Amino acid sequence: MSSTPDDATRQAGEICIDASQLRPGVHVRLPVPWMDHHFMFSSFVIADEEQARLIAAMKLPQLFCDPARCKVPPLPMRAASADPTADGKAEQDELAALEAAREEARDRRTRMMDALRERLVKAEQHYRGAARTVSRAIRGFSTNPRQSVADLAAVCEESTAALLADPDTAFVLIADKGHDDGHAAHALSVMTLSLLLGKQAQLPEQALRVLGTGALLHDIGKRLISPSILRNSERNRHEEAIFRTHCRSGHDEAMRAGSLSKPMLDAILHHHERIDGSGFPERLSGNAIPLAARIVAIADRFDSLVNPIDYRRALGPAEALSTIWTREQRGFDTGFLQLFVRAMGIYPPGSLVQLSDGRIGAVVGSAPVGKPLLPKVMIYAPEVPHREAIIADLATQEVVTIERVLRLQDRSVEEVRYLLPQRKVNWSCPAQ
User: Fold this and answer.
1) Rounded distance, CA 257 to CA 244, Å?
2) What pLDDT was estimated at residue 2?
3) What angle do CA 339, 345, 350 make, to 5 degrees?
4) Rounded to whole angstroms, how far apart are CA atoms 249 and 254?
5) pTM (2 d.p.)
6) Mean pLDDT for all residues in the chain
7) Quick one: DSSP state of residue 80?
8) If we measure between CA atoms, which residue out of 210, 212, 200 comes closest to residue 335?
9) Longest C-alpha distance within the chain, in Å?
10) Strand boundaries in 39-102, DSSP class E
């Protein structure tokens, strides 16, 4: 087995022990690369006697232990057995068990990745079909608004069932894409996020469908604005004034269509209003902003941060959530924003993170109730085929945690391709 200097070097606070001192409750760090053993982590607290036997079967010359992480102290060191025959038989049995465990762990990882991929493919198929319908409905809104609204309502109804049944996959799709699908991509993201927030707020099913349809239409007025203005992330005052007309023009056009309910119209007109009165077009504040608009405002802002006009400035989901909560909170409904954070989780799927053992990964599954800091993470391991990528369930162990969220622009092209394969890779390159 090969090892790196970091693997084989005793770290601060650690002591050297051998396999005879292992027992459940003892912390151990294996001095070999994590791909050279079947355990999910190289550093962990031993859960049972079987784990202790499997570590012993590796016949490592030394192990490391952090006494501060131990639930019980290591056993006293035992002398070598005087019966080499018995030792040989035991070694063969333990090596066979170790190989079986490695194979089982490999199969388990493959099954997990296959299940995740199947979910993503299913969600992607729904997404692509919905995007085509939304794009067609937006383009045809002026000539046949009633048909457009009917098509969008159908997309919303299907999405309420398909995406809310698997919110983790919905989050990954939102994070793992660029804005090359234009209006349809943004509309679908805002709809999905609005539905998830609405569900967290315990809105009834009919209200969710109305909310989702309004979210799909929230930017309908942008069709009347020059693409050069929409794509410009640094608009001058004149261009910004033109941009801000999309709320009123979209609302007025929808009103003339005569087929939208008031909450849908509210989402179109008021999704850029802010609770502190700093928004537009009417500078409404507080509860004067309609409920649907307050929900869509949060969803719209989040997706604009994750998938901005200039993709080189894209934030990861956790970064976007932190930005809204810490820097922009006064502009949004506090109650809904708290529910949004709860729905998304502290580390939303699609976030790139660094673990406490130094590895990096992408969050692919939400954390369980009661353990909000411990989601499922896909580990970056270029030596492992993506189909067999390691998915670590941080909630099932007691040592490795998320140390920090990573800025997407700071990661290499290879890392992004491995962890977020649906993304256009060049979005991670810093702006020149």
Assistant:
1) 21
2) 42
3) 130
4) 8
5) 0.77
6) 85
7) P
8) 200
9) 93
10) 43-45, 63-65
